[in-house]
Design a protein that fits this description.
The chain is α+β, with helices and mostly antiparallel strands. The protein has two domains: 45 residues; 78 residues, Ribonuclease H-like superfamily/Ribonuclease H (Nucleotidyltransferase, domain 5, 2-Layer Sandwich), CATH 3.30.420.10. The protein contains five helices and four strands; from the N terminus they run αααβββαβα. β2 and β3 form a beta hairpin. α2 crosses α3 and α4 packs parallel to α5. The relative contact order is 0.11.
């Protein structure tokens, strides 16, 4: 019975490559064989069976371009969020807009839910006081790719 169990376990492992010995132990039991999980583990190791690791997804092949150096104020602004948490456990985020040349913080906005419309409103108030930047650099967060911010940025 044991040589038959070895071949059956190998066939089951080939059919189900993501199953470990614990999940493979259930299958012979369903077929009516009385097997011990320790015996299945011993055969599993002796036959060199193991759960195959999934291949890692390839990342984008393109190289990141270097940022052009800035030589004057309002050439490039950077926007990003900084998350934090209160003592009560409530999470909040801080939106920071920084002029890359002067290192001046133009906007610091704190909120538990900051939408793209909020960002557009804040940038409009800053543009009432300062000149429009040539470029705004962000990450691809959901707030920065919203319809509201796209409409604010123009066509």
């Amino acid at each position: 019975m044991r040589p038959c169990l070895k071949t059956r376990l190998r066939v089951l492992a080939l059919e189900r490559p993501r199953f470990g010995y614990r999940r493979l132990h259930v299958l012979p039991k369903r077929e009516g064989q009385t097997v011990n999980h320790k015996w299945i583990y011993r055969i599993y190791r002796a036959e060199g069976l193991a759960v195959r690791c999934k291949a890692r997804k390839k990342l984008a092949a393109g190289e990141r371009g270097q940022k052009q150096p800035v030589s004057a104020a309002n050439q490039r602004w950077s926007m990003n969020f900084m998350p934090d948490q209160l003592a009560s456990g409530q999470r909040f985020r801080v939106l920071n807009v920084v002029d890359d040349f002067t290192r001046e913080c133009l906007v610091t906005y704190v909120g538990t839910s900051i939408t793209g419309a909020d960002i557009a409103r804040l940038l409009t108030t800053v543009l009432a006081e300062r000149a429009q930047p040539a470029m705004i650099v962000t990450n691809n967060g959901p707030e920065f790719i919203s319809k509201a911010l796209g409409q604010w940025a123009g066509p």
